[in-house]
Specification:
This protein is about 20% helix and about 25% strand. By secondary structure, it is of the alpha+beta class. It starts with a strand and ends with a helix. The relative contact order is 0.08.
């Protein structure tokens, strides 16, 4: 390690335990930077002491002397960049060098102290400094314990500890990691990637190389390999060291390689992703030339061609400053027979509501668009500390009696491979059956407009002994894509029945008119059956959406042991559901449980290209409540 002696200004070299205490300088480069070869020539540095690139080295040396330190490290002068071996060693060691520094001076060359008659706010300049957008300065912010920020005139602005709240607003990095009360090593991979999502470097490969220390990775540098290749190699090295599956929780919209991300910006929306810390070891996963071998719980759908893989990470959602919900991250996968590829439609990533705080409002992070959800379709331009406009689940309100996490604990070994491998196997079948998740106009009763909302049907624990039997209307169910999109408008509320189905006719009188409804409620019914010898048990799942409030609901209807499945019978049972729930849509709940059946619809998200509807509401159906409760009791 080379260090500048701040007294003699000579460059000295030290190794291992002989390295003395030193200060370190963090800055952004310009065209006047001093190099190792130039600085070691005494006359050259004396002649150029007023050149900005040299002047900041002199200024940092002066600060170090004032702080009682004899040595200073700065990347421009202390690395001989003409040696590729030395450059590679320095980059692989840089995080540790910043971490071990006694103090780090951050020199903000684009932040000036405004004159007395100026209206410029120095903190606004601080927020807009180029330093916050550079790739290398991320590790320079996180590694040192003691950081002091200085303006161009070397006026002290404050320490990292004192400015932690402001820095959190600028970078999206929690103040706990800035103040050292939380260890960066416990952050999820996706969260750390999100911190780098808006940063840039002069050389494209450096965006990956600047993250080596943040993940504790060492790897050779291959300038000329390109940014995508260097970032892929970084992820491959991380997979060798970590079992954190959040490395796969990225948006696939900008990537033609759906196994690994192309760029940190693919993780821009993952600032809220955390390790799940489940009470079991994560099965090992490996990346090979065949693809990704992964062992995870699977959530099945009605379609034989797509499932959701549940990763071992969660996303936290905030209501004001408090965490109000926790959701599990799911990867939609296309394929069959446990061989899949990442899906781009109807969504690329789903954050499924798992643990919601009872009685809270629909849970969101600060400042998102309420009506969007974790459809990782694209990055957005919001501040790094907020979820991007396509990343916040609209989560339903919870009650204290709800079973929050309905996903199975049974793991399935799957292969997630490339499009070029999976599509030749089942591509024609998938195309014919799923039609790109598009819904024909004929099936939409000649409605040329794309439906606003629909229900995506999932089975977190499978169907068990139950089987799907009927739907009303029949044309509103699309089993090949596992969507139910109600098209029939519910009749106006009749005063003879209140929201709870109680008979009000006697007090209302026989000639009372129907009351107008402020919005349109579209609803329908799904019927499932379980056989007991020669007998059947029928269960109805009533689903409704309201255009006025954009709210939705799900209810279970006990249809008994005899159900004809005739249209009149389906209409009658659907009307029964109308009487139960259609009182006040703004108060609809998103969870119902009866006997051994649970229906939950607590997650809403936008779909890619508005197909098969603009917003999908994910419905979870569970038919083995006793086994689910026993499984949770064992935990």
């Amino acid at each position: 390690m080379r260090l500048i002696n701040v007294v003699t200004l000579q460059v000295e070299e030290y190794f291992g335990t002989d390295i003395p205490e030193y200060a370190i300088l963090s800055h952004t480069w310009d065209a006047t930077e001093a190099t190792f070869q130039q600085w070691t020539k005494r006359m050259a540095r004396l002649r150029k002491f007023k050149v900005p690139g040299y002047a900041k080295v002199y200024g940092a040396c002066k600060l170090a002397r004032q702080d009682g330190l004899r040595y200073l490290w700065i990347d421009t002068v202390c690395i001989d960049k003409s040696s590729s071996a030395e450059l590679s060693e320095a980059i692989n060691s840089m995080f540790a060098w910043y971490e071990n520094a006694k103090v780090c001076y951050v020199y903000l060359s684009d932040v000036r102290i405004p004159s007395n008659d100026s209206n410029v706010d120095v903190l606004s300049l601080f927020r807009r400094s180029r330093w916050w957008s550079r790739g290398w300065t991320l590790q320079e912010l996180l590694a040192p314990t003691n950081i002091i920020f200085y303006t161009r005139e070397w006026v002290q602005m404050g320490t990292k500890y004192a400015l932690a709240i402001l820095i959190q607003e600028i970078t999206g990095i929690d103040e706990g990691y800035l103040r050292g009360t939380r260890r960066i090593s416990i952050c999820s991979i996706a969260q750390r990637m999100s911190w780098a999502s808006k940063r840039v470097t002069t050389r494209e490969e450096d965006l990956a190389y600047s993250l080596l220390g943040l993940f504790g990775i060492n790897m050779p540098l291959l300038y000329g390999e390109g940014g995508q290749n260097s970032f892929r190699r970084l992820q491959e090295e991380i997979i060798k060291m970590s079992d954190d599956q959040s490395i796969f929780a990225f948006e696939t919209g900008s990537s033609d390689n759906t196994l690994l991300a192309h760029h940190p910006r693919d993780f821009a929306a993952q600032g809220g992703v955390r390790p799940s810390f489940a009470r079991k070891l994560t099965p090992p996963f490996t990346l090979s030339n065949a693809g990704l071998s992964l062992t995870v719980p699977l959530i099945h759908t009605m379609s034989p061609y797509w499932v959701l893989a549940v990763l071992n990470c969660v996303e936290l959602h905030w209501d004001q400053e408090d965490v109000s919900a926790r959701s599990v991250i799911c990867l939609p996968l296309l394929g069959r027979d446990n061989k899949y590829m990442r899906a781009r439609a109807p969504v690329t990533l789903i954050s499924l509501g798992a643990d919601l705080v009872a009685g809270t409002k629909p849970a969101t992070r600060p400042k998102p668009d309420d009506n969007v959800a974790v459809t990782r379709v694209r990055s957005a331009d919001s501040d790094a500390n907020t979820v991007t406009t396509t990343s916040t689940s609209t989560l339903g309100r919870a009650t204290s009696l709800e079973i929050q996490d309905l996903t199975t604990r049974e793991d399935t070994e799957i292969l997630v491979s490339y499009f070029s491998r999976i599509y030749p196997l089942w591509g024609n079948e998938m195309d014919e059956a799923m039609k790109g998740f598009a819904v024909s106009e004929m099936m939409l009763n000649s409605n040329t407009e794309t439906p606003e909302q629909g229900f995506m049907l999932t089975f977190p624990r499978g169907l068990g002994e139950y089987r799907y039997r009927y739907s009303y209307p029949h044309t509103d169910l699309y089993p090949n894509i596992s969507f139910f999109i109600p098209s029939v408008v519910a009749p106006p509320i009749h005063p003879s029945r209140n929201a709870h189905g109680d008979d009000m006719q006697a007090s209302a009188g026989p000639n009372v008119q129907h009351q107008p409804r402020p919005g349109q409620v579209r609803r329908g019914l799904l019927v499932f059956a379980c056989s007991y010898g020669a007998n059947y048990k029928y269960v109805g799942i009533y689903l409704a959406v309201d255009s006025a409030t954009t709210n939705w609901t799900c209810r279970i209807l006990d249809l008994g042991n005899s159900f004809s499945g005739m249209r009149s019978d389906l209409e009658e049972k659907t009307a029964l559901g109308d009487g139960v729930v259609l009182g006040k849509p703004e108060e609809w709940l998103h969870y119902d449980q009866q006997d051994d059946v649970i229906v939950a619809a607590r997650t809403r998200f936008k779909t890619v290209n508005g197909k098969p509807c603009k917003q999908a509401i994910m419905v979870e159906l569970v038919f083995d409540v006793d086994e689910l409760l026993e499984e949770r009791d064992l935990e």
